[in-house]
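Sequence, please.
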């Protein structure tokens, strides 16, 4: 969760954008749903107005055609009447044969003496009312107008046009259209809605219905009421008139008989006062509109949801990718604890931002590698994982744990006391687990602890100190935990003890020469030996040089020791010579401290001379680090030694920072290659470097010897690359002088 939060923190912009988008969409949807009714209103109004306008255009076009025909009919009657001075003649002549009559269902003519003729010349009865509706003083010559049902013939509406002779109106031509007349279907194809469209006069009388459903019959409709009441003819003459009588264009909601109707109207251009009315029950439209819109909204929501989910997936994918990358960099794959690098970084941050005291611990299991060897790696891994888990459980959220290597962990905690308790607890739990899974090797957790001080908040230094403390833990302790402070104290004590004992040890001859053979791998025979010091105390305990050499180097006692060793070796050579052994050169180690003495060369010569030792029987081993700093002086010393025909070995070559370059300026006899190349020789690089060093030594005309040869394979390798000499446990560990003579020396 924390990592997701920090991921979001790093991607705030994208995330914000996503959230914003999401909310905008949600808002839009809510807005749409809420405003659905309003939108339906707007929509219905727009569509109906549109429809009526379309209808007006189409009908106007149609009606003006019919109007022109009526005009022509009226004009023709006037013309023939004038020529023959008889209206009847004209009617008789024209109506029946009148070519345009084909366009009307029925043609009539109303004369000035109020006789109504049909096209076949028959007279039709007509009431005064009907005459009144047709005959209007206002009619201009060459005009026409639309009349609704007059109740003559089967016509439902009429195009009426007056005939004039001069200023005198002689009658009306009436083109009638029956109920079977349909406005062309094309009218309805332009229309959006399922509304009903009527052509009405200013009183609300219906001329015609634009019939979309072909079977509906307009004959039943004489006014809009009849439509509203489901086509039942109502005897009321009272039309819905008022609504549309204002003319022009408009939109109205009509309430009638508990229902609401939406109606749009538009005045036709052809006949003033006549309008096209599009009318529709509001609910009908709403239901279809809302369900349509709901579908659209649903689809929109699904689309948006898909987009959102895709974005979310992409976002999560990126997060996961970053996390795997981060995992690889920051988390140990086996235990899920931090990597050392990440621990270092986080710990440094913690130490710098929090001024409280911390303690660093390095924790491992004593002799863990035996568990691995005896019970298998899998079991070993289980124990490592459990140890990691238990440590993680025991630390707080602002404390850290990293895997150092194998079963070794680095921990940064605030309180060392509770850490100690935790370690004891962890140890108990691990022991119980081990017993459970039949791991019979004792699982003992040990730890070294170092604390921050006012001056020291450097994590790497603290880790080093904690690690030193871990190594110094006495495994026999009940609670194998060691504080660096105590280690320091112990070191100081040990140093003091060593210093207090050194003189007496020298006097009592406690420093012994041990010898390790050097072999000629080509000839398979002894080629020499290296003298290594051992401190054998009165009680018989043997102390190795790495425990006291540093103290002696620091206090200068090393000078005495080294000359003592040289002297001992010289004396040994003399004795062996006397006893008739085949002699081999023996090397002695020379601390770099010795070289600081300006009389060093003289002192060496004094020892050799005093013992009368032939130069070729002694080799002086100088470590390559001795050449750092004052190279010039070093070269001078070496040259002086060489002048005295002393043999010089360059010890530990390759372990430090020596460069081949530096070596070429120094006169020496043997290059002693450090054993570290063998630990790398399996990897290939070590082998190549080894080979190159040997090659270089050969080119320089010096011998070389490899230290630390432990296996026959390593020996084979040396043979193969042409390294002549070897030294190591393969042949023998360093052993006491007498033992060495017995094992390796032959008499002449
Ligand atoms: P060094 O001069 O490099 O000595 C070789 C060390 O490697 C010896 O350790 C030897 O026991 C060890 N060794 C030999 N063969 C093998 C092998 O096959 N495998 C492994 N792992 N180790 C091997 P030692 O005797 O404990 O000496 C340690 C160091 O102490 C020496 O390193 C040397 O620098 C110093 N030292 C020993 N004796 C003297 C001395 O008399 N004077 C001075 N100045 N230094 C000495
Ligand atoms: Ca050495
Ligand atoms: Ca060495």
């Amino acid at each position: 969760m924390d990592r997701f939060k920090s991921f979001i923190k790093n991607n705030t912009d994208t995330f914000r954008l996503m959230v914003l988008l999401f909310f905008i969409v949600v808002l839009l949807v809510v807005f749409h749903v809420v405003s659905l009714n309003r939108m339906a209103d707007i929509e219905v109004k727009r569509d109906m107005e549109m429809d009526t306008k379309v209808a007006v255009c189409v009908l106007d076009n149609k009606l003006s055609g019919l109007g022109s025909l009526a005009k022509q009919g009226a004009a023709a009657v006037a013309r023939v009447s004038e020529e023959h001075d008889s209206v009847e003649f004209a009617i008789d002549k024209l109506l029946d044969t009148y070519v345009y009559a084909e366009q009307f269902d029925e043609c009539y003519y109303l004369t000035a003496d109020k006789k109504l003729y049909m096209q076949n010349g028959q007279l039709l009865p007509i009431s005064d009312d009907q005459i009144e509706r047709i005959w209007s003083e206002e009619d201009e010559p060459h005009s026409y107008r639309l009349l609704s049902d007059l109740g003559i013939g089967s016509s439902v509406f009429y195009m009426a046009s007056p005939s004039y002779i001069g200023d005198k109106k002689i009658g009306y031509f009436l083109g009638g259209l029956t109920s079977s007349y349909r406005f062309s279907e094309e009218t309805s194809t332009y229309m959006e809605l399922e509304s009903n469209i009527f052509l009405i006069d200013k009183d609300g009388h219906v001329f015609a219905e634009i019939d979309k459903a072909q079977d509906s019959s307009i004959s039943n409709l004489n006014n809009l009421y009849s439509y509203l009441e489901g086509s039942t003819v109502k005897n009321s003459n009272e039309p819905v008139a008022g609504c549309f009588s204002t003319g022009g264009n408009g939109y109205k909601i009509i309430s009638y008989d508990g229902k609401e109707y939406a109606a749009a109207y538009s005045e036709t251009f052809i006949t003033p006062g006549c309008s096209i009315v599009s009318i529709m029950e509001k609910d009908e439209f709403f239901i279809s509109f809302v369900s349509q819109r709901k579908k659209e909204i649903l689809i929109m929501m699904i689309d948006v949801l898909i987009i959102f989910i895709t974005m979310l997936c992409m976002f999560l994918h990126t997060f996961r990718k970053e996390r795997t990358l981060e995992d690889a960099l920051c988390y140990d794959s086996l235990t899920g604890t931090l990597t050392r690098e990440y621990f270092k970084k986080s710990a440094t941050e913690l130490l710098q931002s929090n001024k409280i005291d911390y303690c660093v611990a390095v924790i491992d299991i004593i002799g863990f590698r035996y568990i691995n060897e005896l019970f298998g790696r899998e079991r070993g891994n289980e124990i490592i994982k459990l140890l990691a888990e238990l440590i993680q459980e025991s630390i707080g959220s602002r404390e850290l744990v990293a895997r150092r290597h194998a079963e070794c962990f680095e921990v940064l905690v605030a309180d060392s006391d509770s850490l100690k308790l935790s370690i004891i607890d962890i140890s108990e739990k691990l022991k119980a687990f081990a017993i459970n899974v039949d791991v019979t090797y004792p699982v003992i957790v040990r730890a070294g602890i170092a604390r921050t001080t006012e001056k020291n908040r450097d994590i790497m230094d603290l880790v080093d100190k904690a690690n030193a403390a871990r190594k110094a833990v006495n495994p026999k302790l009940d609670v194998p935990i060691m504080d660096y402070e105590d280690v320091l104290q112990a070191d100081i004590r040990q140093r003091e003890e060593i210093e207090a004992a050194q003189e007496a040890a020298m006097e009592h001859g406690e420093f012994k020469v041990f010898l390790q053979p050097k072999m000629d791998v080509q000839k398979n025979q002894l080629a020499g030996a290296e003298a290594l010091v051992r401190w054998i105390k009165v009680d018989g305990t043997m102390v190795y040089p790495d425990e006291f050499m540093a103290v002696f180097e620091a206090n200068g006692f090393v000078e005495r020791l080294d000359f003592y060793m040289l002297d001992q070796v010289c004396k040994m050579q003399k004795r062996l010579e006397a006893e008739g052994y085949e002699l081999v050169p023996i090397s002695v180690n020379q601390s770099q401290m010795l070289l600081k003495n300006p009389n060093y060369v003289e002192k060496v010569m004094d020892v050799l001379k005093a013992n009368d030792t032939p130069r070729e029987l002694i080799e002086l081993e100088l470590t390559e680090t001795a050449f750092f700093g004052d190279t010039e002086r070093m070269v001078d010393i070496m040259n002086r030694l060489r002048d005295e025909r002393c043999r010089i070995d360059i010890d530990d070559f390759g372990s430090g920072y020596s460069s081949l370059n530096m070596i070429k300026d120094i006169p020496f006899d043997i290059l002693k290659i450090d054993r570290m190349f063998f630990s790398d020789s399996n990897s290939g690089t070590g082998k190549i470097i080894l080979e190159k060093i040997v090659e270089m030594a050969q080119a320089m005309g010096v011998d070389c010897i490899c230290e630390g040869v432990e296996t026959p394979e390593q020996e084979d390798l040396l043979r193969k690359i042409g390294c002549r000499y070897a030294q190591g446990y393969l042949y023998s560990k360093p052993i006491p002088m007498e033992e060495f003579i017995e094992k390796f020396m032959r008499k002449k």
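The first strand starts at residue 106 and ends at 111.
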